[in-house]
């Protein structure tokens, strides 16, 4: 009677040094993951705040661009770049961004009086009823969205849309960035990018421009936004303001324009 041969498993000896190396590798990988987690999370938070999918209604407004197109001030890619770049230089860079830096710092140190002061200043600096309504709409809408992310403030009451002064978009944006520990400079750049993208998309619809022209506009405006964001951090209080007279005229006349695609 033949016997069935039995298989013997060969054990591979595990050296202590191998275990130590594997443990060290896992520790290094974990430390790398942890060190890169915060910057990655910050970037994603900023992308979320700048996303066109954020339901705050930024695409409803043209900030006077619709009238500028209607009367022929903006008629092609070159004039669109001049218009958007001019407003960026004389309003976004000298008003919105420096005030955003101050709001971000005020939220971080829980200085609510300073938050209210700069919020009121920003809304008061809007030169037309249309621009004030837009800023209040975006600010209160963003605060409502942040509630869904468990980020709330009682500073502007239970219904920010009915606050007597209103909530500026930059105020709500700075509130989110400060509470999520997002860098002020990166927040300013993101805020500038979101505004630029909305303006270019409006120009693409209104002029109209092709999609390639829209991308060329964004490509040309990005370096300017980076420079304006950096410059705004050093602007003195006395130098904050706006000088966009033609934009104010366009916005004011847009309020009574006969046919409109964008909200007034």
Describe the structure.
- This protein is mainly α and 264 residues long.
- It is 65% helix and 0% strand.
- The termini are far apart.
- Mean pLDDT is 86; it is low at 4-37.
- Counting helices, strands and paired strands, the structural category is mainly alpha
Give me the strand/helix succession. Answer: HHHHHHHHH
Task: Provide the gyration radius in Å.
Answer: 26 Å
Shape: globular
> Could you name the ranges where pLDDT drops below 50 across 5 or more consecutive residues?
4-37
Helix fraction bin: 55-70%
Question: What summary fits the major beta sheet?
Answer: none
Count of helical segments? Answer: 9
Strand content: under 5%
Distance between the termini: 100 Å
Which SSEs are present, and which pair or pack?
Elements: H1 16-50, H2 65-70, H3 77-108, H4 112-124, H5 129-147, H6 169-179, H7 184-206, H8 211-232, H9 245-254
Give a short summary of the structure:
The protein is mostly helical and 264 residues long.
Summary tags:
mainly alpha, single chain
